[in-house]
Amino acid sequence: AGLVAAWPMAAARLEAAVASGPLHLQAPRSNAGWQPIADRLTDWEPRYLGPAAKIHQAYGKDGARAGIYVGYYQNQRQGAQLITSRNTLVPSNERVWRNTGETGRTLVFGQERLTPIEAKLRGRSESLLVWRWYWVDGRYVVNPYWAKLLQAKSSLFGRGDDGAVVMVYAPYEDIPHSAEQVLKDFFNAMLPALTRGLEQARAQPSSPARPRRGRDARRAPGRARHSSPRRGRARERTGKPGYPHSRGALSPRDHLPDGLLRVPSAHTAQRRSGIQSRQTPGQQPAAPFQVVAF
Predict the structure, then answer these.
(1) Per-residue pLDDT of the chain (294 residues; tens, 9 = 90+)
(2) Backbone angles phi and psi of 50, in degrees to 5
(3) Does this model's pTM top 0.90?
(4) CA contacts within 13 A on the Cβ side of 166
(5) Is the CB of residue 24 less than 8 Å from the CB of residue 53?
(6) Radius of gyration, CA atoms only, the chain
(7) C-alpha angle with apex 182: 181 to 185, nearest 5 degrees?
(8) In whole angstroms, what is the distance from residue 263 CA to residue 114 CA?
(9) What string of DSSP letters covers 62-115?
(10) CA dist list (Å): 47 to 141, 242, 249
């Protein structure tokens, strides 16, 4: 009994020793003339729900401006998933920004060939050119179905479900051509550092699973659950003496083979005397036990 009681404590200590702190995602530093700036480039931010870590940083170079957004996901679950219809550049109820159109692009950065989705966003006083990708299982991809497949493959082979959405953007006034040139120079300078940051985040130990909530969290330690034969709902073994579904209250002679259990009927002792007093002549007494199959 002491060993059983000590196991939850030992498991908690082991989990605490293996678990890491909050996930750290490093933003790219200065490179090729691009310097991080403190001010926000715009009030726009994509709606990606529940990332484990994110980067939203503006940069400047010789009067040009550009920004980067990364949402990193780990131990994904409902409400915190990389690929879902709830994640979007501009929510449908957004009143300031709207997405005026998207198209595919093919870009070559050194030995990297990337095909981002290009979107044009229009606000009240400015416009943005946005390129975006997914980073899953160490690869940049665009197709969400392919990204989901890579994610499932990575989880199957024990590499985790880590993934990220990567965006770079630049403002423009009338024609997006100038912003396109800025983004090419900016992403070419930031891609190596950005990729290293994603790989370093993936190499960090996963954070522990969140504690259970609700009825399971309130249940006292050492109390097991079993299914009620009547309704199939989970029921707790209380171990209270005399409780009809408690094995601890039964003597060895009440246990039957093949998964059967002889259980005293509720209030057997009290009812038996009353029933016998009300029996008509020749009537058999009520059985003090009933057989229940588990």
Answers:
(1) 444 444 444 344 433 333 445 788 989 999 999 999 998 899 999 999 999 999 999 999 999 999 999 999 999 999 999 999 999 999 999 999 999 999 998 888 777 788 899 999 999 989 999 999 999 999 999 999 999 999 899 889 988 899 999 999 999 988 899 999 999 999 999 999 999 999 999 988 765 544 444 444 444 444 444 444 445 444 444 444 444 444 444 454 444 444 444 445 554 555 555 555 555 555 555 555 444 444
(2) 70, 35
(3) no
(4) 24
(5) yes
(6) 32
(7) 90
(8) 69
(9) TTEEEEEEEEEE-S-BTTB-SS-TT-BSS-TT-SS-EEEEEEE--EEETTEEE-
(10) 20, 57, 57
- Residues 151 and 82: beta-carbon distance below 8 Å: yes
CB-based contacts of 293: which residues, under 8 Å, 6+ apart? 229, 259, 260
Strand 53-61 relative to strand 35-37, pairing: antiparallel
Q: In the chain, which ranges are E strands?
A: 35-37, 53-61, 64-73, 98-104, 107-109, 112-114, 117-122, 127-136, 139-141, 163-172, 225-227, 234-236, 260-264, 289-293
